[in-house]
Each structure stands twice: as C-alpha cells, then as structure tokens.
Amino acid sequence: MLTKRGRFSPASFESANSSISGAMPISSDLITNSAENLCHLGLIMTYESNQQHRSQVPGKSQWSIPFDDEETCFNMAQSNGWVHSHCAWGLHLLDNVLAYLGWAQDHETCVFVAKFVGNQVGNQVIWHGYPADHQNNQQDIPTQGILRIWLVNNVLKPAKIRRIMKGQRCPL
After folding, report:
1. Alpha helix stretches (DSSP H) within 99-169
2. Which helix (H) or strand (E) holds 39?
3. Is residue 25 situated within a structural domain?
4. What is the full per-residue pLDDT of the chain (172 aa) written as tens digits?
5. How many independent structural domains does the chain possess?
6. Which residues, including other chains, have CB under 8 Å from residue 63's CB and lie 6 or more apart?
C-alpha cells in the first residue's frame, strides 16, 4: 500500500540542493531523467512512501528517518542530478553531515544510501524509495556515474565509494 503523496515544485528542488554546499552542476550526459527534464516533458512528479519499508516487513529494508526526511532525501537526489534512467540515489544529511537513514533487509545493518525508483503511468511519474542494501543486492549499488558525481563533488570519500562499488561493509 502506498501512502503519503508529495508534489514537487522548483522551490523544493532549490531548498534540497542547498543541503550540500559546493554542489556543482552535472553534465547532461550523466542525467537521463532528472526531475527538471521530466517536468519539461509535461510529466507530473509525485513521491509516495511505500509502507513496506516502514512497517517491519521481513526481508524489506526499513526507513529510520521520518517521511519528511525521506522526501527531502529524494528531492536532493533529483535536484543534484543523482538520477540514471528511472532510478535516483539519495543520501541523508543532518547539518551537512552524512547520517544513517535506515536498516538493510536484515533489520540490523545500518545504511546511509537510498534508492528511488520511478514508474511512469500516463503523464505522471510516481516515485518511491527504500534504504539501499549494497552489501546484499547488486541492484542497490549506485551506478558508476552517480558514484563519480559523489566523488567529484566531495560528497563521499574515495574509500567509501570503493567499498560501496565492491558491495563491502561501509560504516559511517
């Protein structure tokens, strides 16, 4: 069951973008379906929290942050161009410091990367996200392009990026 809908406006992207100081524009070859590109196509963007990731469902990763922070994480991913195809990758920042955002599928391992997936239905793209478990799921490892953006913009240190790429344990 999906609940908690949020609509996007340019102002929401600007405020999310201010969360990371020094974020630089990303070249268009790395962005395939950013929120701004989808809005220019006349598509309506909505974000819905998937309750499977908030209700202790076995085998599903779980958010530990409030819905508003989940949505901010998504907005920041979109505004910074951390998007490839219909997937976006987000991070949770508290006072510009990287923080855990949930638990992996085992409900014990803390994780700090989120994956967001968008599905187009008519003229609407409905997004939902979950805490990504890069150690146990290859599909939860951000693309090399996204990791490169994080490296170039000093969002994550090289050692963390290498560990994520290799599917290794990566504590904060």
Report:
1. 144-152, 158-165
2. helix 35-40
3. yes
4. 233 333 333 333 233 333 333 333 333 333 344 555 555 466 788 999 999 999 999 999 999 999 999 999 999 999 999 999 889 999 999 998 999 999 999 999 999 999 999 999 888 999 999 999 999 999 999 999 999 999 999 999 999 999 999 999 999 8
5. 1
6. 49, 53, 54, 70, 101, 102, 130, 131
Structural domain boundaries, residue 51: 2-165
- Kindly compute the dihedral angle of the four CA atoms of residues 50, 92, 26, 127, in this order, to the nearest 10 degrees: 10
3-state secondary structure of 132: coil
**In the structure encoding, which two tokens stand for residue 28, read together?**
């268009």
Q: Bridge partners of 29?
A: none
- Give yes or no for a contact between 24 and 153, defined as CB atoms under 8 angstroms apart: yes
Residue 128 lies inside a defined structural domain of this protein: yes
Using alpha carbons, select from 1, 17, 95 the residue that is nearest to residue 55: 1
Give the whole-angstrom CA distance, residue 153 versus residue 67. Answer: 26
Got the DSSP string for 56-112? T-TTS-EE-S-HHHHHHHHHHHHHTT-EETTEEEEEEEETTEEE--EE-TTSSSEE-
CA distance 56 to 7: 26
Here the tokens at position 13 are 């992207």
Residue 171, domain member (yes or no): no
* Residue 73 in domain: yes
